[in-house]
Specification:
By secondary structure, the chain is an alpha+beta fold. It contains 13 helices and 9 strands. 42% of the residues lie in helices and 11% in strands. Helix 5 packs across helix 8. The structure holds pyridoxal-5'-phosphate.
Length: 346
């Protein structure tokens, strides 16, 4: 089924002529109410010269650990560092297999490969889009290491629900030994200045990023609730429309909608139509990791993970951020319903 140019044209003129601009993400609107606090915090860091690691990072680590309900948080340079250092600290290395999904950002596989271990991909669940536990069980071997819940890794990339003003990440854990090892690894393997007990790397968090994150963290819950409200509005608007599959929230989970991804056929045409209507969209992600050129040597071929590969063709992320208004959401939903409805008739 193809959406023709003329169909697109009639759909494009079918919403009563009102055209709105709806960005995919609006960080400027998100930061505007806190701008004076950010200015003050940056000045404080400049005055104390605590730029790399130091008291602002330590304060944020305590706040973030408390927020996550874990004993410790270790601030690092970005989410990729968090994954890599955690694997290193757990002793993952050559000959080990780490089970993960291909329906994710490449950093997941990079962190494993950079430890000299092998990523073993498994397919995702059709509903949750996260790892299918039955597939996980099938892939366990004597070389699979680790268990569930030793540590959690976070990215504070600017567009995330809790985003820095540049790069930042963190590991949370309840394991004191693991915490200490990651603290040493993130700082060139030194527990004491210029005494290096391990070969590490420079993965420290910046003082300015920590100070910014400390200001934003108390607003995270409210921002997540606003995202959930907009997601509910989308869900209700799409209810009963054939051809639009909305995100699923498992009973055991609370979705915080970093992205609001629907599934539609002819995704690229639908995306083009929405862009013509002034709506920014994203695709997370167009090529699964096992089919990326960088991972060719792992030996996976097309068809290995059917659910993941279907999702990569059908996923479409709609505008989602706490400041998205009810009117904007309504406009996006009506444009999506319109174009997908037209497609169903073709
Ligand atoms: C699932 C996942 N893992 C890891 C990362 C990497 O985080 P960072 O960009 O902070 O290194 C990202 C970033 O988008 C991600 O989405």
């Amino acid at each position: 089924m193809t959406i023709s140019a003329s169909t697109l044209f009639s759909a494009a003129t079918g919403t009563g002529g009102t055209q709105m601009k709806v960005p995919f993400l609006d960080l400027k609107a998100h930061h505007a109410p806190l701008i004076d606090e950010f200015d003050g915090a940056i000045r404080e860091v400049i005055e104390s010269s605590a730029f790399a690691g130091g008291p602002f990072v330590e304060r944020f680590e305590q706040e973030f650990a408390a927020y996550c309900g874990s004993k410790y948080a270790i601030g690092v340079g970005n989410g990729t560092d968090a994954l890599w250092l955690t694997l290193l600290a757990l002793g993952i290395g050559e000959g080990d297999e780490v089970i993960t999904v291909s329906n994710t950002f490449i950093a997941t596989a990079e962190a494993i490969i950079c430890c000299k271990a092998r990523p073993v991909f498994v397919d995702v669940d059709e509903n949750t889009f996260t790892m299918n536990p039955a597939e996980l069980k099938k892939s366990l071997t004597a070389r699979t290491t680790g268990t569930l819940g030793d540590a959690g890794c976070f990215s504070f990339y600017p567009g995330k629900n809790l985003g820095a003003f540049g790069e930042a990440g963190a590991v949370v854990t309840n394991d004191a030994e693991l915490r200490e090892k990651i603290q040493v690894l993130r700082d060139h393997g030194q527990a004491q200045k210029y005494y290096h007990t391990l070969v590490g790397w420079n993965c420290r968090m910046d003082g300015i990023q920590a100070a910014i994150l400390s200001i934003k963290l108390p607003h995270l819950e409210e921002a997540n609730l606003l995202r959930r409200e907009r997601a509910l509005q989308y869900n209700q608007a799409f209810e009963g429309i054939e051809g639009i599959a909305t995100p699923f929230e498992a009973d055991c989970a609370r979705h915080v909608y970093h992205v609001y991804a629907i599934r539609v056929q002819e995704r690229d045409e639908v995306r083009r139509f929405l862009e013509q209507k002034g709506i920014g969209c994203g695709v997370h992600y167009p090529i699964p990791i096992h089919l990326q050129e960088a991972c060719r040597s792992l030996g996976y071929t097309e068809g290995a993970f059917p659910v993941t590969e279907n999702l990569a063709e059908e996923f479409l992320s709609l505008p989602m951020f706490p400041e998205l208004t009810e009117q904007q959401t309504e406009y996006v939903a009506s444009c999506v319903s319109e174009v997908v409805g037209v497609e169903a008739l073709v």
